[in-house]
UniProtKB/TrEMBL annotation:
The lineage of its organism: Bacteria, Bacillati, Actinomycetota, Actinomycetes, Kitasatosporales. This is Lipoprotein signal peptidase. It is a multi-pass membrane protein. GO terms for molecular function: aspartic-type endopeptidase activity. It comes from the Bacteria. The chain crosses the membrane at residues 48-71, 91-119, 126-144, 164-190. It comes from Streptomyces atroolivaceus. Its main location: membrane. It catalyses: Release of signal peptides from bacterial membrane prolipoproteins. Hydrolyzes -Xaa-Yaa-Zaa-|-(S,diacylglyceryl)Cys-, in which Xaa is hydrophobic (preferably Leu), and Yaa (Ala or Ser) and Zaa (Gly or Ala) have small, neutral side chains. It is an enzyme of class 3 (hydrolase). Keywords: Aspartyl protease, Cell membrane, Hydrolase, Membrane, Protease, Transmembrane, Transmembrane helix. The active site is at D163, D177. InterPro entries: Peptidase_A8 (IPR001872). Belongs to the peptidase A8 family. Its EC number is 3.4.23.36.
Amino acid sequence: MAEAERIIGTPDIPDAEGADGAEPQQASEGPAPAGADEPGSGRGRKRILVLLCVAVLAYLLDLVSKMIVVAKLEHEEPIEIFGEWLKFDAIRNAGAAFGIGEAFTVIFTAIAAVVIVVIIRLARKLYSLPWAIALGLLLGGALGNLTDRIFRAPGVFKGAVVDFIAPAHFAVFNLADSAIVCGGILIVILSFKGLDPDGTVHKD
């Protein structure tokens, strides 16, 4: 009997394919390929594109508004928008946002430049859409005021920023200041929610 089995042989047992010819399934899936969810991937590049679009929009709105203010409103009487509550009043501000620290123009210029560099470096790890919007607002606002620091009088890196939005009982500011403040508030909210720029969520 043993001799007969040796001669006839035993049927082959499929080990690579099932009876229907389908490929075998792995017992468990391994980790995702490296870089699948990194900013270099398609979705990561979209987040960077959102950051750049928001930054360009904020920058252009600030730049155009300042050009109009300088051409039409500077050295003129303030324009009332909502009576005494809100006016357009062109002023030159050598300090930081909202007229703070006018004696440190060069320092504020350097800080703005550093902020821009940090945002650009952080963009390489960006994977969160809300963070892309927040950083875009910061970048656009910082570039808007930095442009004034470089190109406006009294000189390079000492230029005075054009401010014109004048609410009652509040400092005069511009659209770049508004973009910076909105971006900062959004970053605080995202941080409280535990959302990191790379999309990681920290839960308590």
